Amino acid sequence: MSNPAPQTWQVLGLDALGVVGSVLLLLRISNKAKGVWGEKITGGSPAWSWRVAAGTQTVLGLLTLRTAQQFHGAEWSDGTKNASGAVDWLRTKWDIYGTAHAHERLFHWFFLGYLVKDCLPGVCEMQAAMWLHHGLCGTLIALSLLQVLDVGHNACQAGATLLEMGSLALALAQCFPESILMNHASMVVMTASNALALWLTYFFVEDPAFANIGVIQFVYAVAIAALVCARQAASFQNYKANAAVHAEDYSGGKPKGA
Fold first, then answer.
1. Where in the chain does DSSP place strands (E)?
2. 8 Å CB contact between 153 and 60
3. Where is 240: in which H helix or E strand?
4. pLDDT digit string, tens, across residues 143-200
5. pTM (2 decimals)?
6. Could you give the dihedral angle defined by the CA atoms of residues 68, 73, 75 and 76, in that order, rounded to the nearest 10 degrees?
7. Which residue ranges make up each domain of the chain?
């Protein structure tokens, strides 16, 4: 005999506890990181913040990878088998009342918790562009978690992961500013990340599986396009700044890494 589906308040309560727990965990990690790496500013943010960001983004990537692996041949609550393949996963509904995997829910909790943690008073200084970034990302993840749309949750998770992989490369370049190779790799990965996110946005707008979403598709596309442009511009500025430092080091006879 199958277990009854949880009531809406139970699901929302579980999600609220998950997000709050993620915030508390990340705050504790951030406090530890401050003691180890300090408040030295690199690339506009404290050194400790880049390392916490890199760790969080790595976890998000692993959660999405595990989710995609579980999708292959998984069985729905009605006993039927779902399709396999990345495109089928993007089109599939995420049913939090029966078929959602724990890794999908953990992804949403952890990502939303990270964004909320940054916005809390006294955690870290954020410029207006970063507030806008966190607000946009947090809204999209919250809408996905609350099941506001009928479909598109997996596409949201995939798009967020693609963008976060570019952010991971940027964070690693700031963690190791002396590395010329890391600086080049960061620019390449960020560009690939943004390009793939734009492709996924086009897929989200054009694929018939999402036709019933309507105007949300247009709003989503405009928001992601603006976010990608801002990310690419910021990444290029960081790349140029690091390259200038590397060139100065070499001109002074002090090469600092490869």
1. 41-42, 45-46
2. no
3. helix 215-251
4. 888 877 667 778 888 889 999 999 999 999 989 888 899 999 999 999 999 999 999 9
5. 0.82
6. 60
7. 8-251
